[in-house]
Each structure stands twice: as C-alpha cells, then as structure tokens.
Amino acid sequence: MEEELINTIKTPIFSHITSEDLDHIYEPSEDSFLLIDALEKDLDLIRKSKPLLCLEVGSGSGVVITALGTVLGSQCHYISTDINLHACRVTKETGRLNGVDIKAVCTDLVTDVMGDVKGAVDVLLFNPPYVVTPSEEVGRGDLEYTWAGGECGREVMDRLFPSVDSLLSPHGIFYLLVLKENNPADIEQIMAKLGFTCTCVIARRTGQESLSVLRFSRQK
Ligand SMILES: C[S@@+](CC[C@H](N)C(=O)[O-])C[C@H]1O[C@@H](n2cnc3c(N)ncnc32)[C@H](O)[C@@H]1O
C-alpha cells in the first residue's frame, strides 16, 4: 500500500524561542510564513524531484527549513547556514523539537558548505535581508543582518546569485523571497543570464510590504 502523502505544511513549533533569543535573531514573520506557503503550493513539484538535499541560506530561527523537513522526511538531508551563530543554534533546536535533523553552519552565505554540497542541492531556500537601507547598515550587528539589504535591498542576495548554478543539482530549484523594491524583474534577468527561468509562486501584500517568492529552475 502506498504511503499517504501530506499536502499541507504546518508551522513548526517554535515556542522554545525566548525574548532574549529575539534580541539576536529574526522572529518568524510574514515573510517567513509566505516562503512556507510557497513551498506548500509547490509541494508536488518539490516531491517529484525526489529531493535528497535541502539547503537554507540565512535560516534565522529555522522555521522554514524545519517546515519543509517535516513533510519531506528523513530521506532528505538538511543543511542551513547563517552568519549569526545564535541563529544557527536556534535553527538546530527548532529542527530537533520538530523531528528534523539540521546541520546548521555559521558562515557567510555558502562559503563553508560549498565544498560539501556542490552540485547536490535539490532545494535551495533564501529569505534574505531585503529591506532597502544605506549600505553602511548591512552586516552591522546581529539584528541588522536580518533585515538590512543595502542599496535596493539587494546587496546580500546579489552575492548569492553567482553561486546558484554551482550549488544546484541538475533538477535543483531555488526559492527566493523578494520585496517589490528589490526589482524582481531585474533579478529575473540576472538569473536568466546565469541559465535559470523564473516563476512567481506566490505574492502577498503585508502592511507596507509587497512580497513575493520566486522559483528558479534551470532553463531547458
Ligand atoms: C530575513 S531573515 C530570514 C530568517 C529566516 N530564514 C526566516 O525566514 O524567518 C535573514 C537571515 O539571513 C541571515 N544573514 C544575513 N546575512 C547573511 C550572510 N551574509 N550569510 C548568511 N546568513 C546571512 C540573517 O542573520 C537572518 O537570519
């Protein structure tokens, strides 16, 4: 008998996150939940690729990679990175409490994991610091790291784009959360030059922010 597949993604338990943690890490927010909703919408597509390795860059509290892990199960491996050590510890714990084993690595973008995951990432996730700020605010401290995106809110995410081709497996998919001010059409053009097609999976206005989740897959 075939195993019954769950088609919804529950929000993981994150009640262990304390107000002291939130002085240092990103609180799960509308953007985190929009990315989870995009993954839920794409779950059939993700499952069809039979993912064996999922990598989240900038995992913060770990709710996004954990949410995906709860539905994909233990045949897939989960690696996360964050520039903030505190976030890596919380990500590991969020995974543990929800039954997802995550290798959480403290590094800039994918620097210290590239050697291990090159060409093998089936699902790549990034909810970057996307807020438009002066460049000087990028990377100033733990909390600034979570939101300060510099010019057009693009200074951090733009540094990841050239690595996507090397990271992804032949059928790998990249999910990126963006703000309207990040100029998604320009991101689409940059990624097209790198060999990827772009689809907007989901879009939502939350308060002042117009957010969307873009999916990139290799051009056929
Ligand atoms: C908007 S928060 C998203 C957190 C979490 N993924 C979520 O959706 O709730 C951005 C995260 O990226 C991390 N980050 C910022 N710059 C980074 C860098 N250069 N390398 C790795 N992580 C980075 C921040 O510390 C923060 O945890």
UniProtKB/TrEMBL annotation:
Family annotation (Pfam families): MTS
Residue ranges of domain Methyltransferase small in the record: 34-132
Coiled-coil regions listed in the entry: none
One Gene Ontology cellular component: eRF1 methyltransferase complex
Catalytic activity: methylarsonous acid + S-adenosyl-L-methionine = dimethylarsinate + S-adenosyl-L-homocysteine + 2 H(+); L-lysyl-[histone] + S-adenosyl-L-methionine = N(6)-methyl-L-lysyl-[histone] + S-adenosyl-L-homocysteine + H(+)
GO molecular function, one term: protein-glutamine N-methyltransferase activity
Entry keywords, A to Z: Methyltransferase, Nucleus, S-adenosyl-L-methionine, Transferase
Gene3D superfamilies (UniProt xref): Vaccinia Virus protein VP39
One biological process term in Gene Ontology: methylation
Location relative to the cell: Nucleus
Summary of subunit composition and partner proteins: Heterodimer; heterodimerization with TRMT112 is required for S-adenosyl-L-methionine-binding.
Function: Methyltransferase that can methylate proteins and, to a lower extent, arsenic. Catalytic subunit of a heterodimer with TRMT112, which monomethylates 'Lys-12' of histone H4 (H4K12me1), a modification present at the promoters of numerous genes encoding cell cycle regulators. Catalytic subunit of a heterodimer with TRMT112, which catalyzes N5-methylation of Glu residue of proteins with a Gly-Gln-Xaa-Xaa-Xaa-Arg motif. Methylates ETF1 on 'Gln-185'; ETF1 needs to be complexed to ERF3 in its GTP-bound form to be efficiently methylated.
PANTHER family noted in UniProt: METHYLTRANSFERASE N6AMT1 (PTHR45875)
Protein family: Belongs to the eukaryotic/archaeal PrmC-related family.
Protein name: Methyltransferase HEMK2
Provenance organism: Cherax quadricarinatus
Organism placement in taxonomy: Eukaryota, Metazoa, Ecdysozoa, Arthropoda, Crustacea
